[in-house]
Write a structure and sequence with these properties.
Elements lengths: L7 H8 L5 H13 L3 H5 L3 H7 L12 H4 L10 E4 L4 E4 L2 H14 L22 H9 L1 H5 L12 H15 L4 H12 L6 H9 L1 H11 L19
Helix pairs in contact: 2-6, 2-9, 9-10
Length: 231
């Protein structure tokens, strides 16, 4: 089956469903960060804490306990996946789901930062196939709303939708746009220097991502043509 885009309206239905919060956090992370399921399967609590580093005050203790006291809808984590030369972000909507999952299920784990961000019942890292299965669970929700089901809710289509949205809305020349999309998606076909440059100029890269947030936010599915997003 060829890849196809997933409408924001269907993402809204998926995220409004009764499925477990970590299903929503995982699907949101794939869709809004363009991290694939293999990358997500390796994330730790410490990776998430580091991604939110900018949201701590200078003299504040950098702990998950302190992080979870903050307003998740004001947080855009900055993910630096060094082994893939991938720099990306996720939306505040996805941060909300991650925060909620941690508060619901992981409060006893907060001091062990080497724990998986998403784990099995036996405290192990989830394998990529399990993460893909969680995402596919939303098909049962969406089938209730579609007589003619034109696509499958799965990770590859979420990734394809992210790329489609980037191509439509990143306001750069084509070469620069392709380089930024490669950096977001971890398919960096360009130079190591480009990755290093963006590590040092993260604020500029984040501005590009912030412009994309309205188009990556399921709750805004009925106002897809917005041009800005305010916190």
């Amino acid at each position: 089956m060829s890849m196809t885009t997933i409408p924001l309206r269907d993402l809204f239905i998926a995220f409004a469903s009764s499925k477990p919060t970590h299903y929503k956090a995982i699907a949101g992370l794939v869709f809004t960060s363009s991290m694939n399921v293999t990358t997500i399967s390796k994330l730790t609590l410490n990776d998430f804490l580091n991604a939110c580093n900018d949201y701590f005050d200078e003299n504040e203790s950098k702990t998950l306990s302190n992080l979870l006291k903050k307003d998740s809808l004001s947080i855009i984590p900055s993910w630096d996946i060094k082994y893939k030369k991938q720099i990306t972000f996720n939306t505040p909507e996805t941060s909300f789901f991650i925060f909620t999952y941690l508060k619901e299920k992981r409060m006893n784990d907060l001091d062990d930062l080497n724990q998986p961000l998403f784990k099995t019942n036996k405290n192990n890292f989830l394998n990529p196939s399990k993460i893909s299965a969680y995402i596919s669970e939303f098909n049962s929700v969406l089938n209730m709303h579609h007589e003619h089901y034109e696509y499958t809710f799965k990770s590859k289509n979420l990734l394809y939708t992210f790329r489609h949205i980037c191509k439509k809305n990143i306001r750069l020349d084509k070469k620069s746009q392709d380089m930024v999309i490669s950096l977001f998606s971890g398919k960096n076909k360009h130079t190591f220097e480009f990755y290093e440059y963006n590590q040092l100029n993260l604020k500029n890269l984040k501005k590009i991502y912030v412009h994309l947030i309205p188009f990556l936010t399921a709750k805004n599915y009925d106002s897809y043509a917005q041009n800005s997003y305010f916190f």
